[in-house]
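Appendix B. Raw example, untouched.
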Amino acid sequence: MIKSIFTIEIEMNSVSKHLFLLLFFFSSITIALAQKDTNTITVLTYNIYHGEDPANRGTSNLDEIAALILQYSPDVVAMQEVDSMTTRTAGVYGKKVDLVQELAKLTGYSGYFAKAMDYAEGGYGEGLLVKGEAIFSTQNLPIPHGGEPRAAAWAEFKLSNDKKIAIAGTHFCHEFEENRIAQVKEISKVAGQSNLPVIWAGDLNLRPDSEAYRSIIGTWKDAGSDPTPYSPTFGSLKDGPRIDYVWFDPSKFTLESYQVLDVPFSDHYPVLVTLKFK
């Protein structure tokens, strides 16, 4: 569905494209709201490749990502590789752009940017989009072996069924296993201190057979471990690695659905998970 829509868009002028997207957004919201179980929470995690189409460098991918979000209508979106007011965004958009706030405008969600590091005259890190109001915060993660600074974006918010939830979106180190193990420990520590049901998600740059994966202990459940244990999320859907995850506490939730979405807007594939409250 997504592919055919955006093939048609190529032939439209800019005004027609945005009108078409708006109509698509509102029709998608109506369908999603009609189908949604009020005792569930749906999470989308997506590495958005700093707001640029990897197959067409210099071109934005935000309209397509916004359409995807509004089609599936998740309660929360965790995003990685997010730029805020960088010269890199200026090269794509003609001016410096805060990608989270642009997506918040396009979707109607509340947005939060958690800066992991200074980059290109702006910031680089994680983003969260949440339906409704939320209390946001940033957790800085350890890098004992050095390398790029890393962070987690946290949100506490109330769902439409009045249940409260805490969620973290993060992006672990891509270079050193020692860093990833330390980052797992810190995320788990903060999550364990919450008195709310907790979900955490993101591009963890680790594979299911890694030491860092095995270091994730306690009550955490990998949403992709049972239904599709080898479903790739990066590079190729045929033989790429699985490095993007959603983790939850099985004493608080049961898994309703797990999908890796086949869309070409980044070098990663979005992971969509629906959990049901126990």
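End of appendix B.
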